[in-house]
Design goal:
Mean pLDDT: 90
Strand content: 25-35%
Radius of gyration: 17 Å
Order of helices and strands: HEEEHEEEHEEEHH
Largest sheet: 7 strands, antiparallel
Length: 207
């Protein structure tokens, strides 16, 4: 899976990818912005869309791995006490690997010390994930007032189908692959949720 670039924006960093709209544009995000009262309907729709797309890309028997990473100045690290590890029910017997990556895809960095700190959990199957909990955590990424969230980037890698699933925030998500073959069924099944801004390009890949 090394040929799929694991860094935001996944859609623009990979040749074959799909971008979806999660947050409904016709539903207000806030009920009262000044009082920080959010509209649960907005988040419920975003979660339902993400789960539907996930179910188009994964089946229970797919072998998967989870990659979680933070952008670090060399000092920040991922720790075993971080909330990331709490979104899993049981990691007993799973392979957990901590790595550092300097092959960042950004063109300009202020300091050479910048890197990606990554933890990869391998030996998983889709059936072992609490998909709803994980997706809601990712959609909360910019809204700590709503519930637990993650400070880094989380990628669900489908080793069986050769694709990567990534929710970047409540607004949307990307799925990337090494080839368009594994994306084509998802493109057709979830066509109505493709982001309008990039849809012309996506249509050109599968027309």
């Amino acid at each position: 899976m090394e040929s799929i670039k694991l860094e935001k924006p996944v859609y623009y960093n990979n040749e074959f990818a799909l971008r979806f709209e999660l947050g409904p544009p016709d539903v207000d995000l806030w009920i009262d912005r000044e009082q920080e009262v959010i509209n649960e309907k907005y988040f419920n729709i975003a979660s339902e869309r993400a789960i539907s797309i996930f179910n188009s890309a994964f089946i229970s028997s797919d072998e998967i791995k989870i990659c979680y990473q933070i952008f670090s100045d060399g000092r920040k690290k991922i720790k075993k006490g971080d909330y990331f590890f709490k979104i899993f029910n049981d990691l007993m017997g799973k392979q957990i690997e901590f790595t550092e990556h300097r092959d960042i895809y950004s063109e300009a960095l202020e300091r050479k010390a910048y890197c990606l700190k990554r933890v990869t959990i391998s030996g998983l199957f889709t059936s072992e994930l609490d998909v709803k909990k994980m997706i809601e955590t990712l959609i909360n990424s910019d809204f700590g007032i709503r519930g637990p969230n993650l400070r880094g980037e989380l990628y669900i890698v489908n080793c069986t189908k050769g694709l990567v699933f990534h929710i970047y925030d409540d607004r949307g998500m990307d799925i990337a692959s090494k080839s368009k073959d594994s994306l084509e069924p998802i493109y057709h099944e979830q066509n109505k949720l493709l982001l309008g801004y990039d849809k012309k390009h996506m249509d050109s890949l599968f027309s």
